[in-house]
Structure formats: structure tokens, C-alpha cells
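chain below, 101 aa
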Amino acid sequence: MVQEFHRAHEPDVYKSPDIAEVAAWYAARLDDELARVWVADASGVVVDYVAVLTTSREEHLFCRARTWWEVGQIGVRPCWRRKGVARAVAGRRARTPDAAV
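prediction:
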């Protein structure tokens, strides 16, 4: 799990959650209309995922109203890293959150 990589490198910031809690958290994201998870597969095997949350800000004195996707997580299988897979998945979808997904 990617979380363990983060935990190993920054234990004062990241925790080691229970796998059942992680599964429940992801299941809740699937029901959240503001959340999106995009995957790339190779022959039916998921090799990459990008999880984003739709975020909006109303217009105010300093900026116009806008909506964007905030990337929360990216995970790529080790053998697929450094091949542009995550960039392709995120880049293809990230043009505008107002577009159909």
C-alpha cells in the first residue's frame, strides 16, 4: 500500500491505518459525487490510479468562481513507473472538471 511508503519516510506525518478502514474509506469515496478515481489498465490489470476531489470556490473580490480537481492520490505499480502512465491518466482527465467524465 502506498501509505506504508509515506509512513516509512515521514512517520511523524503519516499513520498506518487498518486495511479494513482503508477499504471502507475508498468505498465511501465511490459514493461521493465530488470524488473521482481514474485507472489505467494493461490487459485487465490495474497499473495506475489517480484519485481526485472536485473543489469549487465562489467568485470574490480577488478571483472569479472556479471549479477544479484536487489530486489526492496517485499510485502506479513499480514496473509501470517512469513510463508516463500517471501523467497520461491525470492529464487526459484534468483538462476541466466541468467536462463529462
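The helical segments are 2-9, 19-31, 85-93. The longest helix spans residues 19-31.
thats it, cya
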